[in-house]
Amino acid sequence: MKKITVSAKNISKMYKLHPSNGDRVRELLFSRSRAKSFYALKGVSFDAFEGDSIGFVGLNGSGKSTLANIIGGISQPTGGSIELCGESALISVNSGMNPQMTGLENIEYKGLLMGLTLKEIRARMPEIIAFADLGEFIRQPLKVYSSGMRARLGFAIAVNINPDIMVIDEALAVGDPSFTDKCLDKMNAFRQSNKTLFFVSHNLAQIGTFCNKALWLEYGVAKAFGPVDEVLPMYQRFISSYNKMTPAEKKAYVDHVIENQSHLLIG
Amino acid sequence: MEQTERSMTLSLSGNRLSIACNDAVEGCAYAFYVYKNGEILEKIWYTDKPETIYWLTEPGEYTAKVFEKDASGQVTSFDTGAVTFKGVQTVLIREKKRRGPKVWLENTAAVIKEIFHHRKRMARIARYDYNMANKDTYLGKLWSVLYPLIQIGTYWFVFGIGLRQGAPVNGHPYLLWMLSGLIPWFFINAGIVKGAASIYAKANTALRLRYPLSTIPAGSILEALFDQFVSLGILIVTLFAFGYFPTLYWLNMVYYLIAMYVFLTAVALISATLTMIARDFQKLINSMIRLLFFVTPILWTMDGLSPALQSVMKLNPILYLVDGVRGSFLFQTPFYAEPLRMLLFWGVTLVLLVLGCNMLQRFKARFLDML
Question: Structural domain boundaries of chain A?
Fold first, then answer.
């Protein structure tokens, strides 16, 4: 029996859309405001087991990154609960590196923030440098890096720090194919060592070959969660019909979906 | 052609509708139509798989049609039974706000525990930050000596030579009297300014990791403490140069450094949280710090003030710290000389600490959304 590593129960994330800064202050001081509530996630539940690789699919604004942030531990849900078994790490395109520091310094700093000692970091350094494969640029400040180089460094650090749960938020989108292959190899090895992986991507082919399960989010609601070969075909059909819609039809569709969700909001 | 009974399944589990042809024929292709309340909802084109999955979102009565196409291209269709989907009812739970003295204490204990638990990590990062601070200058570390020296020079020229014409204070040379107050002020000044900016400055790196947030303000004070050691070195060298030698009272510094550290951390917890909520707060701090400096009798004596005003001034916790350091080096005062002031200082510090811990705990979940 495989162990559950991430268990999300009915999680929701609410943002307040304040009409003005004054309203924001009013809320902070008197807990009272005219702000509308916006739910980025509405009662999402799922269980992930060790060895699972779960792809998040959905249109822009459907809550994929919000969910990735929550699993990565950098944002907390406003409702429901999430239980993580082990350390999680989030890799996103802007995954917290300092543009003034050089590549090497960023490796050291990120390691320190993650709780390693400088000695431990320097022991892992050669492996990280080899994986990032940045050549002379490793000694240059990050502000001169291309977005692909940044993603490579971020990925190299995160995989070599060896978390139990890894969340990849579109970080592979900016890498070139050879680096993407290298990452996918590493991610496969990661899965085989019985860890859990979450993968946010618009590249359905990558999700199809690489993930065993998929979660389809539609404007904050988990529409489908199951094996990839069950979820992806329906999602692909949806995408192709959605792409054929005129802008007016798209808007009507979105309004229809959101109206149908309104019965979810109780309590 | 003989029509045989065929078995089709339509079953629902949660919102997952599965449609299957149970006695599939080898070599045939299958397509499916999904209907909701009799209206067609989706067409699933031919594949060689005799089953498919469809996820439902809206309540209603669902039926399906299965199409079987054999090798010769002949199509037969079968209707399935109906299932009713009642919709998914999700109750959104909102976080409950807990209030009361018990919660205040819990939050305070949680923050102190977190800082203590991660003290080593905090110290490593503070050291790294300290080493990085002057990295992009040519003089590098020399600046941590030059910067206080230039400030000391400026104040000494304006106050010591300009205003007081080098007159001593209570029998001690003005330079020594000024230094022994100015140097603890350097720590307080750096602690307040850096502390307020601390979380915001690290927002991009630390907030995007699972990092114990309370150690950021506490760590920024630690960073300021490293500079304080350099400044204390300058003070001690100057004291030696004037023929002052260590007394037992110099050991008071251990107490005062701890007191300054705790006080500044409490202030930093509040100001760093406020800065995250509104960046205006950092600007306010930066513009008020000079006022605080001149309101506190660091470079001037209170001798000219009325006794009543003097007592009011003594309520200022910063003056307690400055007076204490000055007393330790110049006036041989033990740190417990004024128990009432000591009690007041720790009372104020405790209130600030409880307030700071609670503000951080209350708002930290929303920091990333506040960027």
Answer: 4-87+163-264
Cα–Cα distance for residue pair A252/B67, rounded to 1 Å: 31
Between A64-68, A168-172, B311-315, the lowest mean confidence (pLDDT) is in: A168-172
Name the CATH architecture for the domain at A4-87+163-264: 3-Layer(aba) Sandwich (3.40)
pLDDT digit string, tens, across residues A105-160: 989 988 888 888 889 899 989 999 998 888 899 999 888 988 888 888 888 888 78
E runs forming strands in A65-143: 79-84, 88-92
Structure tokens belonging to residue B332: 């041989």
The residue type found at A100 is: Q
Q: Return the higher-pLDDT residue of A263 and B272.
A: B272
- What integer best gives the mean pLDDT of chain B? 89
Q: How far is B266 from chain A (nearest CA, A)?
A: 21
Predicted confidence (pLDDT) at residue B354 exceeds the cutoff of 90? yes
Question: Of B85, B112, B133, which marks where a domain is finished?
Answer: B85
ipTM of the complex: 0.75
Which residue among B44, B95, B210 places its CB closest to the CB of A79? B95
Confidence band of A267 (pLDDT split at 50, 70, 90): very low
Pairing of strands B75-79, B60-69: antiparallel
User: Is B365 close to A75, i.e. CB distance below 8 A?
Assistant: yes
Residues B288 and B324 in one domain: yes
- Residue B284 CA, chain-centre distance (Å), reads 19
- Strands A165-169, A196-200: pairing is parallel
State the distance between the two ends of chain B, measured CA to CA, in whole angstroms: 72
Residues in chain B: 371
Select from B89, B125, B207 the Cβ nearest to the Cβ of A74.
B207
Domain range for B51 = 8-85
pLDDT in tens, A39-62: 889 889 999 999 899 999 999 889
Residue A90 to residue B205: CA distance in whole angstroms: 12
Instruction: Name the nearest CA neighbour of A114 among A87, A141, A138, A86.
Output: A87
Structure tokens at B89: 């009812």
What pLDDT does B237 receive?
95
**Cβ-Cβ contacts under 8 Å, B359 against chain A:** none
Query: Could you tell me if A170 and A92 are in contact, meaning their C-beta atoms sit under 8 angstroms apart?
Result: yes
Task: Count other C-beta atoms under 10 Å from residue B151's C-beta.
Answer: 15
> Which pLDDT tens digit goes with each residue over A209-240?
889 999 999 988 888 999 999 899 999 999 99
Q: Is residue B2 part of a domain?
A: no
CB contact under 8 A, B94 and A15: no
The shortest CB-CB distance from B90 to any of A42, A117, A216 is to A42
Residue B1 lies in a domain: no
Supply the pLDDT for residue A38.
84
CA–CA distance, A42 with A264 (Å, rounded to integer): 8
In this structure, chain A runs to a length of 267
Interface touch A74/B208, C-beta < 8 Å: yes
Task: Tell me whether residue B67 is in a domain.
Answer: yes
Between residues B7 and B340, the one the model is more confident about: B340
Q: What is the pTM of this model?
A: 0.80
What Å distances lie between residue B188 and A134, B28, B224, B344, CA to CA?
43, 82, 9, 18
